[in-house]
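Two proteins were folded this term; both appear here.
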Amino acid sequence: MIKPGFKLLSLFAIGLTLSLGSLTADSVPDVSPVQSTANPLGLQTVGPVNLAGSDFRSASFLTNLPNIMSYIDDHRDLLGRYRPPTNSRIDPNGLSWNTDMDVRVYFVDESSILHNSIGHTTNSDFSLNWGDEKLIFPDASTNGSTRTNSWPGSLGTPVLPGDFVELGTIPAWTPLDFFAIPNGGAQAGHEQNITLTYWTDPDQNSLGDPVQHFFTVNPIPGTDYLLYALEDLPFGAFGDYDDVFFIVEAVATPEPETYLILGAFLLMVIAIRGKEPLKARVKI
């Protein structure tokens, strides 16, 4: 009979092994076969767009997506404009966290006739220089059912709800800002036509536009989701704030010490277990 204490330790070792595996098993999502080639202002992407539901976190996000869409629909006024309660809005200017965060951005929806680009910067750096890897969704356009490429004379719809981009680790207290380039997704090869950029810091908007073009809320209390909504016209002309919706998800990254502690426990359990010979008792 295996002693209960050692059986418990063995089960604990198995649990630790599975836990360690789960920390890395979620790290390789599937890249979307359709990637926008738009590069407004000569900007490059921070990384590829990944398929909705292609890893554990994104699959979990998809289960919450209907609730997010319901939140949007439930907070439209009589004119159909998206209007989350003022007291629930979060200032998106220079958002930061008090610990290192693994950040990704999910595409949710859009209703604009424009092919808008969405990007980000950190450390209050509002410069957009040729070659900077700051684009998240070069063309945040969807038809809701299929991903399509852009071809000469025809603009595509390269993303679907739930598609996402990894921003990587954002260090603690690092300001994170987002920007939108109206119709930037239609500008492949025509970057010189870009004249407008809107930021989560309104002081950086083009044309001295003082309007905050982003609404930000936590649509599902208790989750790590922040919902951003874009108004893509100068000075908030229509003010419907439903031109692009995206979710920012920030999850605390495990400290290196966490891996060391788990590994040390696992080695200890294996060492103790290895020293105790198995004994079987047979009743006759």
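Next, the second protein.
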Amino acid sequence: LGPNPGTFCTFLAAFLNTLFFVNKRSNALSQFHTQAYLKQYGYLNDPADPQDPSYLEEVIEALRVFQRVNELPPTGELDEATLGVMRQPRCGLEDPFNKKLHKYKVMARSFANSGGRWRRKSLTYRIHNYTPDMVRSEVRKAIRSAFKYWSDAADLTFTEVDFGRADIKISFHKKDGFCSVPFDGRGLFPFQIHSLFPTQTIYGVVHFDEDEFWTEASYYGTNLRIVAAHEIGHALGLGHSQFRSALMAPVYAGYRVNFRLHSDDVNGIQTLYGKKSKNPMFPLSEGKPISTITPSTPTLGSPVESSSIPNPCTADLDAIMLGPWDKTFAFSGDYVWTISDMGHNSPIRINRLWWELPGSLNAAVHSQRTNKTYFFKGSKVWRYTRFMLDYGYPKQVKRVPPNIDAALYLQINQKLVFIKGSDHWQFDEVKPNFSFYPKPLSKLISGLPSSPDAAFTWNNGKIFFFKGDNYWRVNEQLKVDSWYPLSKAERWMRC
């Protein structure tokens, strides 16, 4: 499922700092730098035609999504608050709703196909060399403290070794000889991470950029303990959190006195490795005892409503679609996440992307014919252009019963198909006509269960139906392929 571990090397550019900084002579980022930033972190695609005037609207919409994800007013304007977020040093991993593959998560999910975690809960690490910025004892203490955040929160143990091969290799370099991409020097990308399959012969590697000035217990320089803890979180399988005060937030917040893990960090690591066996007390930023923590999918969620965050590996789907950005979106409750061929990403609240859209949907479908996205709940339908609600919506659904089970786009006739129970309706967006419907679903496709949870057409023309943990694949001849159903959790979510 993954690349050759012998040649697999992922370059993690973190703390993107000076590249997108506003020029001191200017009060705003140039359009070029704004677009580069949005592309870098997965909010914007390269234009097919750079001269296409409609691309400006795509840039504005991408900016709105960036603002929503960062809890800013989604104005689509490059205001000071938005610039402030873009100016901050941050981790180089793409945000949860990226266009490209989330490289680091690919590696985490390749760990022996164990759902994004290591097989063992007892891991070793080795510091191969030291930065001259700090005395050796301080470096060892900072790294040891970074690991301790995670071992205090979850059923994990870490042991430092002085010789031989360790699971996680830590070193400082001015130029990286492991990858072909060298370090940039101070201020741009302070470290690189190479995460390889943690088998008996392959190990994780954390390289810190020696051109940075590494410090501890100081507001000056780059704090080694907090940076290391963030990267160890990635190495353990965690993605980014949407909480700014979380350790796993993409933006580096600098040195913090009495730093504590956010409950979202704890939720994520406990989901992967379980709670600490003897339930020791460990600090949380909200001051919550461990007994109140409900594990959820890492590393995104609300500390107040963490129990409602669906785990993509076990959650039943409300809806699924191939939507904007040509990404696969899966919906459950109030949350949505994207799926790549390497598995699921972290859930995020639906209304962070689609403004004014409620949760617990009945169905969702994106029309490749009109580029409109339709969401159904009860007797209402919401229609969006990209992520903007169209004028006059939501509307009452007519001539189709409320609470439909699923919806999909049928490529052979460019119609939308609505399914409820064992019946289906086909809808032409250009010439609406339901005169001949409903019809049995079996007249369209045979061998499918009634009342599916969700359905959609993928970009290869295949149609997928989901019910519980099972899914069925339908070919271009509208016949269910052999060997189905298969497991959604294993094949789609890579759990």
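The chain has three domains: 31-87, 103-292, 319-491. The first helix runs from residue 31 to 40. These notes refer to the second protein only.
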